[in-house]
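[job 4471] stage=fold_predict status=RUNNING
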Amino acid sequence: MKSLLLSLSLLLSTSLIAQETAAPSLVNTLKERIALSGYAQFGFTADHADGGNSTFDIKRIIFMADGKITDRWKCYFMFDFGPGRQLMEIYTEYRFLPELTLRIGEFKTMYSLENPLSPCNTELIGCYSQGVSYLAGVDGSDPLYGASTGRDLGLLLYGSLFGGWADYNLAIMNGTGINVKDRNRAKDIVGSLSLHPLKWLSLHGSFIRGEGHAVAASTYNPDIAAGDNYRRNRWSAGINLKSKPIDVRAEYLEGTDGKANSRGGYVSTTVRVLRNFDAVASVDYFDKNRQLADASQLNSIVGVQYWFYPKCRLQVQYIHSNPKNRDNSHQLQTQVQVRF
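[job 4471] inference complete, writing structure tokens
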């Protein structure tokens, strides 16, 4: 009996020592393999449209987890805890070569210069231009497409070529947005190519070819009813000039939805005026249907932003909107961004 008790005591002691030794190792492994990050954006908006209104608002509360399974294989997760609370991205990818990585899951559609950018990196409080928001299905401004935050489900091949001189993306995607199954048998083909002839200069082109499934009717496309399948193609061409004092991003975009043709473009500039203090300006035009008399709008934006901590900023912007054959309106927006 004494021998049995002694054996049990030794076994328990060994087990406890092993757990104490393994626990730090497990914690260290998790630290090495999982990177957690996030950001929040909230502010105040005063709007002149529709008689005028003002409100404090929360735009986004984003949580991200980047898991390194091996040196070549990783998984990624993003969730928005802000208004709407939804899964934003979830995918896994494997890097075969620097020139070839395969990704499958839910992620940003690689259309245009702007859509792949994170809202915490864009200079505008509204994040994206009218054309990108409409053609990439970001905010629901196209009722046929709906609000998909510019994301979709699919499979992507991407990589860097010629020593970083060129980057490419080629994807096959549902074409119906995030967190839903495809609504027809067709798939979207999405492609983009970026050339970097100079350190401060990038040239970019992208396209989408596919067939949409209308989630609602649109006054800008009266020939398409909710539930209809329709031809949906897009293309864009842009340029990005990036230096220490000045960043300029400009892009031209076109789209075809059934018989309707849309087009537009934008120029956005950020100028470093003082340390951590930028001036921001943007001109943004988009025509949702060139065959209609009142489908276009011109937005002009000026503002400033102050980076009070790395990746954290205060933004103030004035937006003047000039829709064709309708009354002009303006907004004053402020936003605080905190990120970890």
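[job 4471] summary: The chain has one domain: 35-48+56-339.
[job 4471] exit 0
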